[in-house]
Sequence to fold (152 residues):
Amino acid sequence: MIAVESLSAERGGTRVLSDVSLAVAAGEVAVVVGPSGGGKSTLLRCLCGLDPFSTGAVAIAGHRMTAGPQPAPLLERIRRDVGLVFQQFHLFPHLTAIDNVMLAPRVVLGLRAETARTRATHLLERVGLARFATAWPALRERLLGESGAAAS
Ligand SMILES: Nc1ncnc2c1ncn2[C@@H]1O[C@H](COP(=O)(O)OP(=O)(O)OP(=O)(O)O)[C@@H](O)[C@H]1O
Ligand SMILES: [Mg+2]
Fold:
């Protein structure tokens, strides 16, 4: 369950989100659509406790945040329960795709390697990326570099 009540947020001195309210039920799939720069990523970052917001409140995964700085223990609990796939890759370049996916569950949740690997394999399958499990994040760039600037 996600509930956003009258959330506003400023970035770089500009109001990016103004009085946003929404509710997403457990199991419901919701899509946020809008022009580039419209504030979609900012909203998602606020929901995860990655960025602050100036008015309103967010209830997510049994946690509640109000405007202003969040207490560190609350942020730790939210980050255990709420995930965000970033627009840019933001992968560790020294780890394969599956090792990147396994890292947080191992470090934050303390999962054993086999358990984390099973979970990560299922997640990669779910998003159609299982065949890249052992690929390195920079492989595409390395291939492009080797095949010349014309590659796209
Ligand atoms: N850290 C920041 N500092 C200054 N301005 C920011 C910052 N983060 C976001 N913005 C601005 O806030 C606005 C909303 O950005 P945001 O990234 O949320 O848009 P978006 O809807 O996700 O866009 P896109 O579809 O391109 O991903 C943009 O004008 C952006 O330039
Ligand atoms: Mg975005």
Remarks:
- The helical segments are 40-47, 72-81, 97-107, 113-126, 139-147.
- Confidence is low (pLDDT under 50) at residues 148-152.
- The chain has five helices and four strands.
- The beta strands are 2-11, 14-24, 55-60, 63-66.
